[in-house]
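Crash report, auto-generated. Payload:
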Amino acid sequence: MIKSVNPYNGKELYEFEEFSSGQIAAAVDQAHKAHLEWRNSSFDHRRKHLKRVAELLREGKENYARTMSVEMGKPITQAIAEVEKCAWVCDYYADHAQTFLASELKETDAGESYVSYEPLGVVLAVMPWNYPYWQVFRFAAPAVMAGNTGLLKHASNVMKCAQNIEKIFLDAGFPEGVFSQLPIGSKKVKEVIENDKVRAVTLTGSEPAGRSVAADAGNQIKKTVLELGGSNAFIVMKDADIEKAAETALQARFQNTGQSCIAAKRLLLHEDIAEAFIDKFKKGMLKMKSGDPLEEDTYIGVMAREDLAEELEDQLKRTLDMGAELILGGKREKAWFEPTLVDKVTPEMPLFREETFGPVIGVTRFSTADEAINLSNDSKFGLGVNIFTNDIQQIKKMVPRFEEGAVFINEMVKSDPRLPFGGVKASGYGRELSEHGIREFVNIKTVYINY
Ligand code: NAP
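Recovered output after restart:
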């Protein structure tokens, strides 16, 4: 049985029976059969269906958001915004997929040669709980527009969100099997990957999960996209707008109660402005309201599970034991973690070296731009970096030196359907969103004709 527990009050919400091997095989068969039909459908047909999904998401956003808040503790206002963003990505791919996948003529010695983009078939998506709708839709919208079918293995604590998503596709008129979910735990993922009818796998989650799924898929010579962890630096140069930087850093670290892969996890501050920045940041932290995720003005909810909060507490304790200084916060009660700010963090400490998945951030000071870049790159992860400065010409020259999938200047790292999203190093490989995302799971077919 898979259990969903409300992390705010510890109450068990539902129990789901895990699919047996026979049920898994039947679901894969159905997805495969659906693909054989769906791949022949026109872009217009697919577009109409995906537009309907976007409408349903907007119409039911309060309900869908509520499920998220109850299952994983996301503050309701942020949960509603997440559902709206899912509708956006559906509209985006409904409008642009045909252009992104149009055949491209190539000049060669042939009478005619071109590249066509064709669907691969059934794609397995292993997804995390932190953005339980967004992570799924940013995979599903391009997948179905490309003519693939999707099988979702969602995180065990957000099974009701998974069911909701499956139902939205069916209610929008998608044939059964074009998008469906498998209620299974992580141990059964290998079995799905090994099924011949599954052609590719995408995983958004932690590094260990990525390693395991990529190894299983590698054994089967199946394509993977991995969106893994991050430990993004938030760099504030001495010429930055401190007010704006502090305001943005608060959101970049604390939205979704700090549980975001692209959250700002390491504050790198120029020594000349560090005190002024910390002062503004602290004031902002004190204004953030913690509480019931279902209340509209709650900004800090609870973490998704108590064990995750315990893990964060351990990272904080080990960092303080190594000599860092606690400025604010530090308390934990079950799954609730007080927003926490730590100063004098050095690169050997857990808050710098490890991914911290919750509302805790450490400050490291630097004196030159070179030092800031080296500190930023001194991480096994490479998802993104936030930089605040007024010297745009200077920072643009430095962009190639950042080992990251994204560099955001005077803005926080965020995902946007129009821009590719993904990382390098231990943050994974492949890209989601934009034209790059939809081309990950297609057969890029070369056609060469002599008349
Ligand atoms: P997780 O523990 O890795 O779980 C993610 C998904 O993988 C879940 O569905 C989980 O299933 C499954 N899973 C776990 N271990 C597996 C294994 N050995 N084999 C197959 N499947 C496995 O991650 P999480 O705690 O849910 O999410 C937090 C992590 O995701 C963080 O590291 C975060 O940075 C990363 N993340 C990355 C991105 C990105 O776009 N780069 C976005 C969001 C989150 P069960 O729930 O059944 O264990």
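Post-recovery validation: The pocket of NAP is lined by residues 126-130, 135, 153-156, 185-186, 189, 204-206, 209, 212-213, 227-230, 261, 355, 357, 383, 423 (CB under 6 Å).
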